[in-house]
């Protein structure tokens, strides 16, 4: 764990202190929890979305495979593009 300093507006400072007292925790703990919810959960949601996307086109029959599809998009051959035809 690393230590850091934050500058908080008076109203935010007061709210955090009241909440910490009522929950029996610290302001630091509340701030860590809020940062985790805001930034780490978003990362987990994105990771889950990417995992759900993997293989989404595996059952498509309109092209044989990704290599064949990419080759069909290219014009000419590598040798032609290099001027060695």
Structural class: mainly alpha
Largest sheet: none
Cα(first) to Cα(last) distance is 61 Å
Shape: elongated
The number of distinct helices, counting runs of at least 4 residues, comes to 4
Q: Spans with pLDDT under 50 lasting ≥5 residues?
A: none
User: Helices and strands, in N-to-C order?
Assistant: HHHH
Measured as a percent range, the helix fraction is 55-70%
Radius of gyration: 27 Å
What fraction strand?
under 5%
User: How many structurally independent domains?
Assistant: 1
Q: Average pLDDT value?
A: 84
Number of distinct beta strands:
0
List the helices and strands and how they pair.
Layout: H1 10-23, H2 27-53, H3 66-73, H4 78-81
Key features of this structure:
mainly alpha
Describe the fold and architecture.
The chain has one domain (10-81). It is 62% helix and 0% strand. The chain is built from four helices and no strands. Helix 1 crosses helix 2. The mean pLDDT is 84.
What's the gist of this structure?
With 85 residues, the protein is mainly alpha-helical.
